[in-house]
Design brief:
By secondary structure, the chain is an alpha/beta fold. It contains eleven helices and twelve strands. Helix 4 packs across helix 5 and helix 9 packs parallel to helix 10. It binds iron/sulfur cluster.
């Protein structure tokens, strides 16, 4: 059931100021409310002690503050943690917390399911239920922060969970505003990465939000293979995608693009593929992450053996490109790339994969 009240976490600071003013309250009170929500993690308007009583009463009676409920927290043997979260309308999404020596990275979801039907991805097998609201995206960060020890913080946020972020552009850019707002979560933009499978028209509008990082899921070096792995490629083939990344003003950002390349045995793991990659990405400041495929129960692909992965990365490295062969994190709890929602949401009705690939909303392209 849809909540009819406005939700405090759906508003950026500017939007909340305007809304407070419209309702007859001082706009600077919005800054105080944001501070309570994001700095102090308060989940009840009654606790916002520096607000005047009429505003507190109004908020309690007219607004919502809590969005996601933690349904399950799973911990992998490598320390990766998967938060299974429920929305007000009982949809289930997942966020993944990846602790490393000097940082805690949180991978957030932007949609319930995903319409893009990438053939190696468990989320893609679900189809799209709906976009997440801004508040449901930023609340993943608050819920994850709550499971960390008090002295630790979330240092990095990557929009690489369930869904294609650029199909939910407005909520994603508003979430980035809240993550980077000094009165809200105060993160540096360079600590935030938004990933796309190549929704070309939305890339420039996304990057107008600030100097965040862009990640592009490439996964293939020919259109023939990419059409199969990432059906969106039929609309935006490799040369169109890379041409857009080579054009101004993207180049003038002087920030590398992070390319993700999931290695699948006998599909895209040949040394010819490895040799093609530096040529394809020539002229784009790039960092390449090579990730062996994470198997999941719906998967039709398998990861290559370690020797093949090493040889693949070596060829790229020798060509002078920055390449990292990433290890799988959290695969034992289905928290790794391509595995999200493999268990929690399975069983819901899904459309056949072939038809879902044509399911992009017209406004998105
Ligand atoms: S890889 Fe990303 S864009 Fe493709 S189906 Fe999965 S969630 Fe969607």
């Amino acid at each position: 059931m849809k909540s009819l009240r406005p939700h405090i976490k759906d508003y950026t600071r500017d939007a909340l100021r305007a809304e407070f003013k419209r309702r007859g309250f001082s706009s600077y009170r919005a800054d105080q409310v944001l501070s309570w929500v994001y700095r102090h993690g308060v989940e009840d308007f009654c606790e916002m002690k520096n607000l005047p009583i009429p505003l507190r009463t109004h908020l309690e009676e007219e607004w919502d503050i809590r969005s996601l409920v933690e349904r399950k927290l799973e911990t992998s043997i490598d320390g990766t943690r998967k938060l299974v979260l429920e929305t007000h309308d009982k949809e289930v999404i997942e966020a993944v917390l990846i602790p490393e020596e000097r940082r805690n990275t949180l991978c957030v979801s932007t949609q319930v399911g995903c319409p893009l039907a990438c053939s190696f991805c468990a989320t893609g097998a679900l189809g799209l239920t709906r976009n997440l609201r801004t508040g449901e995206i930023v609340d993943q960060v608050l819920r994850a922060r709550a499971v960390l020890p008090e002295e630790e913080v979330i240092t990095n946020v990557v929009f690489m969970g369930m869904g294609e972020p650029l199909l939910n552009l407005s909520a994603v850019t508003q979430s980035v505003s809240l993550l980077t707002d000094p009165k809200a979560l105060a993160m540096a933009p360079r600590r935030i990465t938004v990933s796309t499978s190549g929704l070309v028209p939305q890339i420039r509008p996304l990057l107008e939000v600030g100097p965040i990082n862009l990640a592009v899921s490439l996964h293939a070096t020919t259109d023939e293979v990419r059409d199969e792995l990432v059906p969106l490629n039929r609309r935006f083939p490799i040369d169109v995608l890379l041409g857009a990344l080579r054009s101004e003003p993207l180049l003038s950002r002087k920030r590398p693009v992070f390319f993700e390349y999931t290695l699948m045995r006998d599909v895209n793991d040949s040394l010819e593929d490895a040799a093609r990659l530096p040529r394809l990405l020539n002229g784009i400041p790039s960092k390449l992450n090579v990730i062996p495929m994470n198997p999941h129960p719906d998967a039709v692909y398998q990861p290559p053996d370690r020797k093949t992965c090493d040889a693949f990365a070596q060829v790229i490295h020798r060509a002078g490109m920055r390449v990292t062969l990433r290890r799988n994190r959290g695969s034992d709890i289905d928290a790794a790339c391509g595995q999200l929602a493999a268990r929690e949401v399975r069983g819901k009705a899904t459309a056949p994969r072939a038809s879902r690939s044509e399911n992009l909303p017209p406004s998105s392209v």
